[in-house]
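Journal club prep — side note

Before the paper discussion, L.F. wants everyone to see what a predicted structure for a comparable chain looks like in token form. Sequence:
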Amino acid sequence: MTKTVLLIEDDPQMQRLICDYLTEFDYGVDAFEDPREALKRFDRNPRAFDVVILDLMLPHMDGFDVCRKIKERHDVPIIISSARGDIGNKIHGFELGIDDYLAKPYEPRELILRIEAVLRRQGRSEKFQVGDLTIDPANREVKVEDFIVSLTPIEMDLLLCMLQKRGHAVSREQLIQAASLPPDTRNRTIDMHISNLRHKIGDDPKNPKYIRSQWGIGYKFIG
């Protein structure tokens, strides 16, 4: 499942380096030099991002102020990436609720490892409650009104993929990849799995509570 990173870094060279490395490891990246623009993007859909990589020395706003505003909106994991590596800044960052702190310079591979560690911790603890539906990604468990629903591995992968992109349309091609199906899998096969999933979680395609069809694209988790 592709993870999406919000990168706020005003050094163009550093930004390109991080973007290139994240892309190489199959992360999606929205990168901004201006923190005000980054916050506008974040406000449109805070759940679109799995982790935030945040510099501290930014134009127009201090990175710690950006951190506060992000945490006020949604408890997304934040990794600070900064040349301000003294212990005082690190302590202040953790007091604000950041998840990790990387002092520049560092090897890009270390950033990848830190992101993976943060996402593992996040995945172990976070459950999602949407209406009568409870989703526990770490244990791959789904309940409807506190009753466990038996999903196939493919159905679970499809549900988690849509949940990860909550509020955004997910193409059938992305769903095929998320479920580790052969690349030549037909669209009708995905539609069949989605139909079975909807039936199991009590979702009416004519009046959906959780999964909405997106004509010509795929599906969207709307809960």
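L.F.'s comment for the group: The mean pLDDT is 90. Keep this in mind when we get to the figures.
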